């Protein structure tokens, strides 16, 4: 537990700007994908599936909403917070902003694992837009892991 606390509280140092920009671009792609799904949901349209089959089954399932709110709206919020946090870091260079933003990617990745599980083992169908979100969330998580493990100062104990 002590090591986990150290990992989560140690500052990030010298995170390359290109890595932060990649994270911002990926968050914007995730935001666009979630926004598209939300707009289509409220228009009552099922987006066409050209890569996978099963978009309709996934997007009309009971798993596509939580308390009547489309899951894609939660995706919009997640990706927006990620993008704003990264943008604020790029503007201010305040390391705690980046650290907290990267920590949020763990939540997004856990949700991704849940939704992939549901598509694979419950619905037996895939939605290409949901898989795009899963990919962007996973990339953000991997970027966070790289930043947290590679760009932290070594502290001897």
Describe this entry's structure for a reader.
- By secondary structure, this protein is mainly alpha-helical.
- It has a single domain (17-150), classed as VKOR domain (de novo design (two linked rop proteins)), CATH 1.20.1440.
- It has six helices and two strands.
- The protein has helices at residues 2-9, 17-43, 55-59, 71-92, 95-123, 128-150; strands spanning 65-66, 69-70.
- A two-stranded antiparallel sheet has the order 1-2.
- Helix 2 (17-43) packs antiparallel against helix 4.
- The longest helix has 29 residues, at 95-123.
- The protein is elongated.
- 29% of the residues are buried.
- Write down the domain tally: 1
Mean pLDDT: 89
- Count of helical stretches: 6
The residue ranges in which pLDDT falls below 50 over 5 or more consecutive positions are: none
Which fold does the CATH topology refer to? de novo design (two linked rop proteins)
Brief rundown of the structure:
It is built from six helices and two strands; from the N terminus they run αααββααα. The chain has helices at 2-9, 17-43, 55-59, 71-92, 95-123, 128-150; strands at 65-66, 69-70.
Itemize the secondary structure elements and their pairings.
Layout (H helix, E strand, L loop, with lengths): L1 H8 L7 H27 L11 H5 L5 E2 L2 E2 H22 L2 H29 L4 H23 L7
Antiparallel strand pairs: 1-2
Helix pairs in contact: 2-4, 2-6, 4-5, 5-6
